[in-house]
Amino acid sequence: MKASDPGKVFMANVDVQERDEILSKIEFKKHTERTIINKADYLKELQQVKACGCGLDMGEELTGVRCIGAPIFNQASKVAAAIWITGPAERLSDEAIQDYSKTVLASANEISEKMGFIQEQ
Fold first, then answer.
1. What is the DSSP string of 42-60?
2. Which CATH number does the domain housing residue 109 bear?
3. Would you say 82 and 93 are in contact if contact means Cβ atoms under 8 Å apart?
4. What are the tens digits of pLDDT across the range 8-42?
5. pTM of the prediction?
6. HSE of 121 in the Cβ direction (CA atoms, 13 Å)?
7. Residue 12 lies in a domain
8. Could you give the CA distance from residue 30 to residue 33 in angstroms, rounded to a whole number?
């Protein structure tokens, strides 16, 4: 869960107490050269996910595979699901990630609105 993009999206959007309880049970294992292997770096990553609204997996779980994900919120403003795309790094280049991130986030926002989520202005 910790290396996956949907996992990061969920963890960045749950309350701190729930996040910390989950993190207390996680063993940080290295899957690739890019895997986050300690809690401090993982928390920094979650801050970035929260700030930009979407998360990235840049080969942390599987070498050469990238993901872009965004949270879907319900009418209670709680994260209920995530939407993401996955592909080989050759197709999800740094430039492509810029474009696809906007699309993934827009799609997640549209689904959230249909679930009754009202985004604060």
1. HHHHHHHHHHHS-EEEESS
2. 3.30.450.40
3. no
4. 999 999 999 999 999 999 889 999 999 999 999 99
5. 0.89
6. 0
7. yes
8. 7
